[in-house]
Task: structure prediction
Amino acid sequence: MHINVTDNYVANQLFKVSADYAPVGIMELDALGYCRYVNNCWCELSGIDEHTIKDKGWQIAVHPDDLDTVIMKWSDASEIQDEFNMEFRLLTPDGTINWVQCRADSLVNDDHETIGYIATIMDVTERIQLQQELLANNHTLSQFRYIISHDLRGPVRNIVALLKFFNKEDPNDVNNPNIIDKLEQSSQKLQSILQELIEVTDLTKPNADVMKEIRFDHVVNTVKNGIEDVIVESNAQIMTDFSKAPSIIYTGVHLQSILLNLISNAIKYKSPDRDPAITLQSYKQGQCIYLTVSDNGRGINMAKNKDRVFGLFQRFHDGLDGKGLGLYIIKSIIESHGGSIDVESEENVGTTFTICFKKQ
Result:
């Protein structure tokens, strides 16, 4: 699709006046793709003023991870005077990410030569976030279905089978005590799995009623006091620097659960060759308060396990006790508050978790 236009000053001025009040971002480019005009909504979504966009190009607002794809698709569309239609991210100078749907059409003269482009962007951030939340919920449901079909089925099948062998006619049957012992074991296993699932659902519910300002150092001290014997036994060193962001607005029980899991994991999965060294640091950037938790432990094979790190009932080290719940729980807690968590890890070197807490 393309639009046939003639040079009309009055029409052009009317267009700009109307565009400045439009609820979508509007941009006019010349034939080479340089910006001639951009409206207020475009500037608001990008966080960049009109002068800067004209001077440095509209591409500076595109998220770096999307830029190459956007440029490639734009070039393909403009080459054949076709419509450009794509969803991508804008990254504002303060770190805010806005998802937009961008559509652009060629402006052509009577000779069908491209003399410019008109592009519009619509904010679709809320829809994208809802889609991502739905996908995450579907993934969680799939994990729960797996647990029900595998982890729960085993103990239940054992209980049903054992009851068939139990001699109800003769309670004094010599085999009955052994069957009862096995029934107790299967029942305890079943109870343990159910309790773990209840723990997951309880801890991952956001609780806005108890949001308050919390100091990182206070929560770390609470965690350290609760696992003091483990810290002493492992000879772990815990170092902190919260000078750049001493506190956040958060739910106390949730922040304590996050730090307890990360610090406990750092000690549990320590390297057999050195004492645990754990460093916690906080800082502010854009719309987030960041917290990093680094250790010098066993690390994780990210090439093999990258997509499983925050999964439910995932374990990465044999021979060590663990339910595989901790990282799933803290990721769910963080995301329920609108934040995110990333991990970098190298085997036999250590692991760093970086948490983005959305500013309240």
About this structure: DSSP finds eleven helices and 13 strands in the chain.
